[in-house]
Design brief:
heterodimer, A: alpha/beta, nine-stranded mixed sheet, 14 helices, 12 strands, B: two-stranded antiparallel sheet, two-stranded antiparallel sheet, 4 strands
């Protein structure tokens, strides 16, 4: 009896020591938040953890709102967000936070118009504001026809189904910033944020996450949705069309690499040291109006030195042009790399992590 | 002749003196079980107190507007600092109202009861009076198993099967043929909405309603049914004119119990409701939002409110929901107990 007991105790001790030995080596990190950044994060983590076996990074697509709040509370080490934190959020946070851009992304406006999905309709900020506030109800409304005279006969007299994000979303943030900057009535009304009070439109539908938006748009003919550019391949596969958006110069542009770069070039030099800046509605003839920095929201102070070191190493790899900002990753999600000046600012912020 | 005290002494447990009544094991058991019972009962009060305390700042901020306003607005997070109203800080433009969610909860439960009650009643009648004795156990077990299926399963079925069917088939058909009936005409949308939520809820509450109604009807003395048959009635007449009236209170109690379940159902409704905000549905196909579902879907957004007023307003919604379900559940159990007492004294 006594021998069995001693054997049992020794066995437990061995298992425990092996377990603790294993956890002492691997640092576990949680990345949660933006569904726009999620595809890129998955590509990064897959390759990074292959070369860095001592780190285990779990990725989740939960929406930028959750990314911000879980980074603030410390539940997640990296809060992915298309939206930078607001002044009041920074002030209310229990410990200092960093908003670190990791790449430049964009957003397209998709629609499901039977017969017109292979056409790029021209839409402007005021028209989109009208659709999402209910003042423009049908696809053959005169303001839509005025922008798309070539398709005047093909635009149907069907009710528009505006689809918005029901979770706290960075895509909502950048889309509503575009509406705010381009349309005074929207600026004085719902304004912008990761969660806004959407105007009452009888057929409006809420969807969860970018995948949810793709699904909802595909399932509902005559619907319109704002979806992140990392899902452009999915929306093409689903047969959804996407619009040419009116920029600040009055031109209608597509989210091509050239137009996104043009917008970035116009505003990137204005990036402040804390890197919280909107890149929406940039000036320039070719600038695409909805582009943004993809932020990693992190606490300056990490629970221990190992986590801080692992976090700094991963983020530094992410923003370097040989690492995460290499085109082999960014091309798959239609993102653009961070310009040199911004990489320098991001490195300065990453250095603050301890 | 034996006296009462002699009978008492003969039938009461033997007492071996004062020592046995204070044995430590007995005392410990008495106090231990008493404490556990008290904790279980106290939990209800403790939760109510927690909700009331946590939601109090929001109650002060929102005032009575909470019960009348349609909008749910966390305020402009990026538009400057917090502003104060009634002494509580909130973001500029913040305005919280429960009307949309209260309406959604009550309407989806109403639709669920409309769909489920006749089915449950007839299922219970079948289980008690028509199912042959050899099949009674498997059938009863199946019904009870159905009550154990998690709500997310039904929610998933709702997303994949029910919502597209309502949006593409049932909705257009009803709108075309019965559009003159109030609430049945008008635009269909995607199929996510009141009807989908009501149907999913109906499937969720059906087993518990059918099982409770079956129990209530089994408790009716068989003499009532047999007497009706003996007087020449068909089995349908015996059931509808003799058994059901006798079990009326119990059937009503079972329906109330199921209603209590439907009011609090979260996940399944969240997946098919369409997550409406700031508006009420104009027909049964349009999106709604319920109190339980909005707490889940809005919590992460509410946490980005730097004043956390939004989270406390969600707690205020939870308080309203808690009060409603408490009233319905307590009422249901009282009615069922009353029905049981009436049966026993008859």
């Amino acid at each position: 009896m006594k021998q069995k007991f001693v054997a049992l105790v020794l066995g437990c001790a061995m298992v425990a020591s092996v377990a603790t030995a294993a956890t002492a080596e691997t640092v576990k990190m949680l990345e949660t938040g933006s569904s726009l950044l999620y595809p890129l994060m998955n590509l990064w983590v897959a390759d990074y953890t292959k070369d860095n076996p001592g780190v285990q990074i779990t990725t989740q697509s939960t929406g930028s709102g959750t990314g911000i709040s879980e980074a603030i509370s410390g539940v997640a080490q990296i809060g992915a967000s298309d939206a930078y934190m607001s002044d009041s959020q920074l002030k209310a946070a229990p410990s200092p936070m960093l908003n670190i851009p990791t790449a430049i992304s964009a957003q397209q406006v998709n629609y499901n118009l039977p017969g017109l999905n292979d056409v790029h309709l021209k839409l402007s900020g005021p028209v989109l504001a009208g659709i999402y506030s209910g003042s423009i109800r049908y696809w053959d409304d005169k303001s839509i026809v005025a922008l798309n005279k070539a398709y005047a006969s093909k635009l149907p007299h069907k009710g528009i189904i505006p689809i918005h994000r029901s979770d706290g979303s960075g895509d909502t943030f950048i889309f509503t910033q575009y509406l705010t900057f381009s349309t005074p009535s929207w600026k004085n009304g719902p304004a912008y944020g990761t969660s806004i009070s959407w105007p009452a439109v009888p057929t409006a539908v809420g969807a969860n996450g970018n995948p949810g938006m793709v699904q909802a748009c595909k399932a509902a003919p005559y619907s319109i949705a704002y979806i992140g550019v990392s899902f452009l391949n999915e929306t093409d596969k689903a047969g959804l069309g996407y619009a040419m958006l009116e920029n600040r110069a009055g031109n209608f542009v597509l989210p091509t690499a050239e137009n996104v770069s043009a917008a970035a070039a116009a505003l990137v030099s204005k990036t402040p040291a804390d890197e919280r800046i909107s890149l929406i509605f940039a000036p320039g003839a070719k600038s695409y109006p909805i582009i943004n920095y993809e932020y990693a929201i992190v606490r300056e102070q990490q629970p221990n030195a190992e986590t801080a070191a692992a976090l700094k190493k991963f983020l530094s790899w992410g923003i370097s042009s040989d690492g995460g900002n290499a085109m082999k990753y960014l091309d798959k999600v239609h993102f653009k790399p961070l310009p040199e000046s911004v990489v320098k600012l991001s490195i300065k912020q990453i250095d603050k992590i301890h | 002749m034996t006296t009462q005290t002699q009978v008492d002494r003969a039938t009461s447990p033997p007492t071996a003196g004062a020592a046995s009544r204070h044995r430590p094991g007995d005392v410990a058991l008495q106090w231990g079980t008493g404490a556990m019972a008290a904790v279980t009962a106290a939990l209800v009060f403790l939760i109510a107190i927690f909700l009331a305390v946590y939601a109090f700042p929001a109650i002060r901020f929102n005032g009575l507007d909470f019960l009348t306003t349609l909008t749910w607005n966390m305020g402009n997070q990026y538009g400057g600092g917090p502003v104060a109203r009634n002494g509580i800080a909130g973001m500029p433009g913040a305005s919280f109202g429960v009307v949309v969610f209260l309406y959604g909860t009550l309407m989806s439960s109403f639709v669920a009861m409309l769909v489920a009650t006749p089915v449950a009643l007839l299922a219970a009648v079948a289980m008690v009076f028509r199912v042959p004795a050899s099949l009674k156990t498997p059938v009863n077990t199946l019904v009870e198993l159905m009550a154990g299926v998690p709500s997310v399963v039904f929610g998933l079925w709702g997303i994949v099967v029910l919502v597209p069917w309502i949006g593409n088939a049932l909705g257009p058909w009803l709108s075309a043929h019965l559009g003159w009936v109030p609430f049945l005409g008008g635009s269909i949308g995607t199929g996510n909405g009141l009807l989908a939520s009501g149907v999913v809820l109906a499937i969720m509450i059906l087993p518990i309603m059918a099982a409770t109604m079956r129990d209530v009807m089994s408790a009716v003395p068989s003499s009532i049914y047999e007497a009706s048959i003996a007087l020449g009635g068909t089995s349908w007449q015996a059931v509808t004119q003799a058994v059901l009236p006798a079990a009326r209170a119990g059937i009503f109690g079972a329906a109330m119990l199921a209603l209590g379940r439907a009011l609090g159902e979260t996940m399944a409704v969240l997946m098919v409701s369409g997550a409406a905000m700031n508006q009420l549905p104009q027909n049964i196909y349009q999106p709604i939002n319920t109190m339980a579902a909005v707490i889940v879907s809005q919590l992460d957004s509410a946490l980005t409110d730097s004043t956390l007023l939004a989270v406390r307003s969600l707690a205020e919604i939870a308080l309203v929901l808690f009060a409603i379900t408490l009233v319905v559940n307590v009422g249901a159990r009282l009615i069922l107990r009353l029905a049981g007492n009436l049966e026993r004294s008859a």
